[in-house]
């Protein structure tokens, strides 16, 4: 009887906590998102006169928005441990970020762990499924200039054309530095069976913790944003002048940052977990590996082999983590600090900005 009462008490507390968190997140969205949109509307004259300054201010507000999403998980005890290469020195250089995709919580995890990476969050572009356009955060991403891509064979060719056009129009004109994509093209649980069948048919590696990546978007990004090609690979010779200066050319992509997200006990977190906080506090592990752009091929066959090799390495890394609890045998690691990540400052400034915008509604 005592155990039954204790179980009922714990369940009641979880339900109450989830309800209160939902109310907080709902109010958070009702205030923060309209405030962001309102400020962007009021700053349109500045966009006409000085677009560089406008996108600088917009980027700061965008970082605040992502910080508010990050704190939903942080206050529930969802923290991050980082492993591998230190990517902070690359924050001011152009990079393509490839990430394994397990659940909607992957995006929230990236929002959290990139907060302390200089201006990365302010100047990054996301590639995400088109359904995210219709979520509460979709309007913010639309204004920021993220790209929403449709999945499926019926849309594939046109979407790649749209992606190239989007990059040509918005990437350098808005001074973007990092571009984030999920080459698997969908969640692990949805694509695993299809990927394994394809691998078996084509004598490719059998993967369990990741799926075989798709080539299209990655190749378009490399060809559109990469520096001049040299012998089938991307070169590194380019102008060092800031792209916002008249008549200058951007350096182009300089790095590929390979990010592997590993969840405790192989249990991915979705956005509902971040909102309601019903899962006990847990640590998500994020591993970074950096490749100079000159090592990355752009032609179809070599690039396919290169991408497959990266995801085979992810498979080995995740298998090692689930077996030992360690992401790598020999690399640095650190817990993400709430203070060092800038979440305190971003949240304080975001709340102040939201408060100032309320009288304007």
UniProtKB/TrEMBL annotation:
A molecular function GO annotation: acyltransferase activity
GO cellular component, one term: endoplasmic reticulum
InterPro entries per the UniProt record, alphabetical: Acyltransf_C, Plipid/glycerol_acylTrfase
Limits of the Phospholipid/glycerol acyltransferase domain: 95-218
Superkingdom, natural source: Eukaryota
Keyword Nucleotide-binding belongs to the record: no
TM ranges: 20-42, 54-74
Keywords tagged on the record: Acyltransferase, Lipid biosynthesis, Lipid metabolism, Membrane, Phospholipid biosynthesis, Phospholipid metabolism, Transferase, Transmembrane, Transmembrane helix
BP terms from Gene Ontology: phosphatidylinositol acyl-chain remodeling; phospholipid biosynthetic process
Protein family (similarity comment): Belongs to the 1-acyl-sn-glycerol-3-phosphate acyltransferase family.
Protein name (Swiss-Prot/TrEMBL): Lysophosphatidylglycerol acyltransferase 1
Organism whose genome encodes this protein: Hucho hucho (huchen)
